[in-house]
Amino acid sequence: MTSPVQDRPIAWTRANPDPLAGYDDEARIDLGAVVRAMRRQVVLVTVCALAGIAIAVLMILGSVPRYTAVETVLLDEDRADLLNEVSPLPNVVRSDTAVQSEIQIIQSRALAYQVVDRLNLDEDADFLSPPVGATQKVIGSIGALTDPLARLISPAPPERPADAGADAGSTGTSAEQEALGIEATDRDRAAEILRARLGASRAGRSLVIEISYRGYDPMRAALIARGYGAAYERFQLENTTEVASSAETWLRERLKRLEQQSIDAAAAVQEFRSKNNLMQARGNLLTEQQQSELASELVAAAADAAEASAQLESMESLLERAANGEDIVTVPLAEGSLRSNVEELRREYFDARLRYRRLIEQYGEDHPQAQGLKGSIEDLRQAIQLELEQATEAARVAYNVARSREESLRTNLDTATDTTNAGDALRGRLQQLEAISETYSQVYRDYLSRLEVTLQQQGFPIASVKVISQAEVPDGASSPQKKAMLLSGMLLGGFIGLMIGAIWELLPKPVRTGSTLSRDTGLPCVGLLPTGRGASGSDRVRRRTVERLAQVCEARLQPDRGTLIGLAPLTADLDRPDELPAALAARLSRQGARKVLLIRDGADGDKLGQSADGTHEAIGLSQMLASYAPDTDHAGADVARMVEDLRQEYDVVLLQMQPLARTAASDPNAWAYDLTLLRVPWGQVQPGFVTDALRDHPRFTERLETTVLEDAELSRARKYMRRGSYEELATHA
């Protein structure tokens, strides 16, 4: 026995393996549930997509076809290089800004006026009054309804003082428009129509601009596109010529002043040189050249003196070591080499030392030859030391000479520097005059180059743009774009249907499957009872459900006494309320093996008798109560005695009860039931409705054994079942 509506503890833990116990802390997406929801809403999405296609078809049929003609223009950089200076900006940056500027020129009002005047479009009534399609009329009607509301909620313009018009000398709005030249004319309307239907875009990253025009007449569209190409080329040519002419006049006036200023500056330089005797030799002043040569010689003399000083220090160091008793056998020269006689003394010294060491090792120091070699070694050492002293004196003399030369050059350089310091101010002034003269000369040359470019621009009547592909008459309409509109309508409609379906799926859903009923209420469910007969699989599912319901009842049958089973529908919305009790009674009888009685609630006219198929007996509840209290309108019936008699006479007693939702209080005779069965209408109640109804009927709930979903639509119910689950396979078995 189950207790579905009693309080049950729920473990809200992450590690809870039971999905019915609570929610995990981590958000999860059930892909299977998403797929089932999409399968359920596929009809709605399809209908909305078809509706979008239908609306797109109506818009296509209600639109006036438009034709697009394209004129291709090239921005010729080679021509621009002949007429313009080379910009210091990078080519890529210059190209991007130049192309965007040219596109703005094409879309300008000035060029539109030229096209209008060239083709006389302000006199063309068909151009000024284009045809309007049904779609545009509908949009216009909607705009006519919404415009007053928009004007109503728009902020009011600021009020002008009453005397403002008089002070300004204006007489009204019309006078102000005439004074400013903004009165709307057919020419203005034609220019606005051109600009509204004109398109200009850059072809990729190239210097090609595509000028497109959309119109209702293919021939006129091609003419206008060609007119734009010709007007744009003419505009560039006139603009180049006009700019060059204005620049020439200004440059000639400027060159006259620069020429005289450059001549005056050069004359001032020469006059200053002559006056102060500042002559040049090989590009430099004479005093400056002398100082440069003395400085170079001084650097070389200082290097020689440093080298001589190092050589002298080395000699003195060797001499000091020899005085301290060390054996010095090397006497370097200033160039780092040895004298030939010193080299010979050095070899003799080493040879005597070697022979002296060998004699000592063999005969000892007292040997006569050893004594003689010892004296020779001493003589050789003194000779080498004498050579070292002579070399040291020679190095000292060389150092003194180098030092004297360095001091002499330094004195001469100081004298030359003192002599030229007095002319520093003159040389500084000369440099200023030369800089001023060079600046005027450079500016004059630049302006002269600019004048040459300007003259070339006037001499070559060519524009920096060229039409490379004239507009052709369009073969077909460019709008409405039928395929794109149909696809957009289908996608938009499908998206709307998808949103509606998603909202519908997010709303609380009624009970449609046994697994949903078990998951949301905790009640067991034996299965579904289909609503119709003869449908695919409906009879098989019905038999399976009745069989499973009978097995639940048989598990609770008592062998020594009859079993009282109550069948209560949740609501009164069942299509065939008597069908399930009769089928269950027929199944429990096992073709006469058990004695089964079916008591129908509310069937006043039924008397005790066999059912139509002869498997069980059936009687109305009123008739049953009347047999125990015939004179008291059933109120005084001895229900306990009646129940006991039924248990003694029948093996199974099925009581068809009233709907739980209709009864205000619990059945007072529910104590007599051995088990109860709940009949839930398919797709009509929420899970919370089931639990609330059972909570209001606790005595019925205490004996509740299982539930069954009646009047189910199998085709829809399968869409709510998890694919591959036992429940889904059972409905297809």
Question: What would you note in describing this structure?
Answer:
The chain is of the alpha/beta class and 733 residues long. It has a domain at 514-732: Rossmann fold (3-Layer(aba) Sandwich). 59% of the residues lie in helices and 10% in strands. It is built from 24 helices and 14 strands. The chain has an 8-stranded mixed β-sheet with strand order 7-14-13-8-12-9-11-10, with helices on both faces. A 4-stranded antiparallel β-sheet has the order 2-3-1-6. It has a two-stranded antiparallel sheet with strand order 4-5. 23% of the residues are buried. The model is unreliable at 1-25, 85-94 and 164-174 (pLDDT under 50).
Supply database-style keywords.
10% strand, single chain, eight-stranded mixed β-sheet, 733 residues, Rossmann fold, 59% helix, disordered N terminus, 14 strands, flat, alpha/beta, 24 helices
Overall SS class: alpha/beta
Please state the second-level CATH architecture of the domain at 514-732.
3-Layer(aba) Sandwich
Number of helices: 24
Output the radius of gyration: 60 Å
Please, what is the average pLDDT?
Answer: 76
**Strand order in the largest sheet:** 7-14-13-8-12-9-11-10
Shape: flat
What is the gist of this entry?
It contains 24 helices and 14 strands. With about 725 residues, it is of the alpha/beta class. The chain has a domain of about 220 residues: P-loop containing nucleotide triphosphate hydrolases (Rossmann fold), CATH 3.40.50.300.
List the topology elements.
Layout: H1 31-61, E1 67-75, H2 77-83, H3 91-106, H4 109-119, H5 125-128, H6 134-153, H7 164-168, H8 173-180, H9 186-197, E2 198-202, E3 208-215, H10 218-276, E4 280-281, E5 284-285, H11 286-323, H12 340-363, H13 368-421, H14 424-459, E6 465-469, H15 482-506, H16 514-521, E7 525-530, H17 538-554, E8 563-569, H18 579-589, E9 596-600, E10 609-610, E11 617-620, H19 621-626, H20 639-649, E12 652-656, E13 675-681, H21 687-696, H22 698-702, E14 704-712, H23 714-717, H24 726-732
Helix pairs in contact: 1-15, 4-9, 4-10, 10-14, 11-13, 12-13, 16-21, 17-18
